[in-house]
Amino acid sequence: MLDSTSQNLFSLELTVVSAQGLKSTACSSLFSHRLRPFITVTTFPPCTSSGGCYYKNRHVFQTRVDDQGGVNPTWGDKFHVPIDDTFFANRYSCIILQLFTKRLIAGQSQLGWCQIPAADIGLPPVGSVRQLSYRLRDGDGTRTQGVVNVTVKLEAPVSAAATTHDTCQPVIGVPVSMRPRVMEMGSPYNGQRI
């Protein structure tokens, strides 16, 4: 039997689709370089009211480097991001996307970043896909012309206790809220709530 402290773990399928309108950071034609962009995806779980942050639960993913896309790169890389139900309950939870370009000599250079708040993802029905686009920001927080496009899909919750054991256990769920059913086309409406 599961204890009351167990949390539901969700798998959020996040697809980094593309970026548009990126600006090259080359300062002179002698050292000009083509953009070789990639994105890192970082989850930031909420901090507790006692001030403790669970950075050990932070997950970092990285797309492949797009050598061909230049200022309009495409990736299509999918990541299965594990998040728990407290991610949606705290308004400070978010997913950070950081866009970098890979340089041959100087390493990587940040082109911009954006933040996807948990509220933007919401708690969509399991299996539904949301397409989101965000304006990139510079390191100082000012808006840039670049835009990053992602899709998110919430996959079925898995009990945290079930993931720590190799055996399957029955789980009894209690609905938190009840949603009204949608009337089908052509069905009679008699004024009663369903």
Mean pLDDT: 76
> Largest sheet at a glance?
4 strands, antiparallel
DSSP helical segment count: 3
Order of helices and strands: EEEEHEEHEEH
Tell me the β content. 35-45%
Radius of gyration: 21 Å
**Helical residue percent band:** under 10%
Unreliable stretches covering 5 or more consecutive residues: 160-167
What does this structure look like?
The chain is mainly beta and about 190 residues long. The chain contains three helices and eight strands, in the order E-E-E-E-H-E-E-H-E-E-H. The strands form two sheets. Strands 4-1-8-7 form a four-stranded antiparallel β-sheet. It is elongated and about 45 Å long. It starts with 7 loop residues before the first strand and ends in a 30-residue tail after the last helix. About 5% of the residues have low confidence.
